[in-house]
Structure formats: C-alpha cells, structure tokens
Specification:
heterodimer; A: mainly alpha; 0% strand; B: mainly alpha; Rna Polymerase Sigma Factor, Chain: A; Arc Repressor Mutant, subunit A; 2 domains; 10 helices
C-alpha cells in the first residue's frame, strides 16, 4: 500500500473487523508510524468513551415510576406471593417447614383412614352425644320455666314437644332481654338527674 | 420451583414475562437494571438532570404500562433504548421550537431591535443542581460529546458507552446500518477534533 489509511479504514481496524481486506491495512499500520499513531489515537478515544460512567438518578426514581405504572396482579399470583412470603428464607428453615407439613399430612391422612374404617362407631357416638345434649337442654329449660312461670307452665312446655320448647326458649330470651333493658334504664336514671 | 423469586439472575426476557404475569417485583427489577443506562443516555442528550429524570421516568412508564407489547424474540434493552431515544428526540425538537436566540429575534429589523430582544445568559450564581451537572458533564470528553449533533451523539453513546453492536443500534434508532456506521465514523472524527482543540 503506497498511501496512508483513510479515516474509514482506521474505523474498520478500530471495530476489529476481520476479513480479506483488513490484512493489507494491518500490514500498512505496522510499517507506517503516522497511521499507527492515528490508529492508537482513535483507540485511546474509544477507551475513554467506554470508561464513561453511568450516572444514577435520584433515590426515589423507582418509586416514582412504580406510582404511575398499572400493575394488575391476578388472584392466583397474589396467593402464591403470600405463601412465598410465609415460607422461611433459609434452607434449614424450609427443611423444617417441609418436614412439619409432611408429618401433619401423614397424621391427618391416618386419622381420615381411621375415621372411615370406624364410621358406624363414630355415627353412633355422635348421635349419643347429641341425644344427651338435647336431654340436658330440655332439663335446663324445664327448670328455668318452672322457676319463672311455675309447674303448670313447665308441664305445658314439656307436653308441647320440640316446638313448644323452642317457643318457650324464645319467650325466655325475649323476657331476659327486656329485663336487662329495663335494668339499664333504671341504672341510667340518677345520672340524668 | 424456587420458593422465592431470584430475579437478579434471570435474563431480561424471563423478568419481562414475570412482569406480564403481574409480579410487581419483576417491574422493579427491570427498572433497577436499566435506570442508570437509560438515565445516563438521556442526561448526556439533554444536559439537564431534572429533565433527564423526567424523560427517563416517562420512558419506563411507557414501557412498563405496555409490557404486554414486548416480543421476547427481541432484546428488551433495545426496545427500552428505542423508547428512550424517541422520548428524548421529541423533547429536543420541542425545545428547539421554543428556543429564544440569545442574539436577539431573527425578525429584528434594526440593531436596536436585536439588542432589545436579546438577553444576557451570564449567571453569577450556580445552583446546587447546576454544580452537580458541571461536575458530572464538565470534563473535556463530556463537553465534546455535548457538541455533537443529537443523532451522532445517540449513536456514539449506544456504541461505546452501552456496548451495542451496529445492528442493534440500527434497530434501536430505526436507521439503516450504513447510516449508523457513517454517524459513528463522523462522531469519532468530530470528537477527536474537538478534544484536540479543547486540550490545546
């Protein structure tokens, strides 16, 4: 090559282009101090550009952006994020949590299997319990009715059956509420004076 | 599946996909990754910190509010820089329309009219923000970059500060590849000349 490099050829070498045409350019640079200096000057500029810093915006930048961004969170994503929030962050903590969850799952599964195999016993026991509860409730209601309204009223309620007992209970509750309201009104009288 | 999302190690496309699913942490991660490069590019284009921050915010708001339009086969950063460049160029065009000549109105008929419509830009007091701007953009090379035409400036910054390839810059700025190479070549030439003069 019997001329100096053109600016475009300097750029070609600067960009590290490879190919058939770059070999003569590189050979010329090796032999020509002027073009070598030109290429080195261009490289120095590129190095300076590549080392320019990134500037940081204000500390509130992200929050200010997010305040104007519409984020629609589907319910399943919100639920998953909530569960992730509860889960321990450490590996040991997650191991313990998984072990506990596994143990509870086994215990509940065993209890469910046991209950299914003893279903008739469970139904009988529940029925027996409900019957006893009913008998206790009737006894309490009967005693309350006798105390408040006398033996005759208690006898009428016991003859009326379940509906009669429910009506009696309702009357009892209304009477209690009225009595409480009356007492409250009486207690409030001296304060108004 | 990890219990906690390790967003910092995910590629941009995956984070963008999580953002499309409605995860606010993914939105914040995208802002965290690119706030500095985007702000720096715009800051060097407009030379005003407050304006640069406003334009950078506008960029992210536009991108994140339309995250559903992002196509994963393209680079997220290229799309982001394209929006940033468009927002900046729009601002510079509007500012150019509103610019008042410091030498007086171009419609002034006499010297007296020109003097009457000119104004003195000398300021004796530099605000804290201006002080920061002077410090950040006051070096010889920053001044030289500021002297470039906006289109040359955008190309040279994307090429050497952001490390983008010519093809990416062409896609980002919607320019032919040959035009990008020409702009970068001219920008390098102008910078070398400007630095040679500034350092004399």
């Amino acid at each position: 090559m019997d001329r100096h490099l053109l600016p475009e050829e300097i750029d070609q070498l600067l960009d590290g282009e490879v190919g058939f045409g770059t070999a003569p350019l590189k050979a010329h640079v090796r032999a020509c101090p002027g073009c070598s200096a030109e290429l080195e000057s261009a490289r120095a500029l590129v190095r300076e550009l590549e080392h320019l810093p990134h500037f940081a915006p204000s500390l509130e930048f992200t929050n200010q952006v997010m305040a104007q961004v519409h984020v629609f969170v589907p319910w399943h994503v919100a639920l998953l994020d909530m569960v992730r929030g509860w889960a321990p962050q450490s590996r040991a903590g997650r191991t313990v949590a998984w072990a506990w969850a596994g143990t509870m799952a086994i215990v509940f599964s065993a209890a469910a299997v046991f209950a299914l195999t003893r279903l008739d016993t469970i139904v009988f026991a529940v029925g027996l319990g409900l019957e006893r509860l009913r008998a206790t409730g009737v006894g309490v209601l009967s005693d309350a009715t006798t105390m408040l309204f006398g033996d005759t009223a208690a006898h009428v309620v016991s003859q009326a059956g379940t509906i009669g007992a429910a009506l009696a209970l309702l009357v009892l509750l209304v009477a209690t509420a009225l009595a409480a309201r009356g007492l409250h009104a009486v207690a409030a009288l001296p304060r108004r004076r | 599946m990890p219990l906690s999302l390790d967003l910092a190690n995910l590629p941009d496309a995956d984070v963008a996909a999580l953002a499309r699913q409605g995860r606010e942490s993914a939105y914040r991660e995208l802002v965290r990754r690119y706030e500095r490069p985007v702000f720096s590019l715009i800051y060097r284009m407009v030379h005003d910190r407050e304006t640069a921050e406003d334009l950078a915010q506008d960029t992210f708001i536009k991108v994140l509010n339309h995250i559903d339009r992002y196509l994963p086969e393209f680079k997220f950063s290229s799309w982001l820089f394209k929006i940033a460049n468009n927002v900046t160029i729009d601002f510079l065009r509007k500012r150019q329309l509103k610019t008042v000549s410091i030498e007086g109105s171009p419609h002034a008929a006499t010297r007296a009219d020109a003097e009457a419509t000119s104004f003195d830009v000398r300021s004796t007091n530099e605000s804290p923000l201006e002080e920061i701007e002077s410090r950040e953009l006051g070096s010889a090379i920053e001044q030289a970059i500021a002297g470039l035409r906006p289109e040359y400036r955008a190309c040279i910054l994307l090429r050497h500060v952001e490390g983008r390839s010519y093809e990416e810059i062409a896609a980002t700025l919607d320019l032919p590849l040959g035009t990008v190479k020409t702009y970068i070549h001219r920008a390098r030439h102008a910078l070398r000349d400007a630095l040679a003069h500034l350092r004399e």
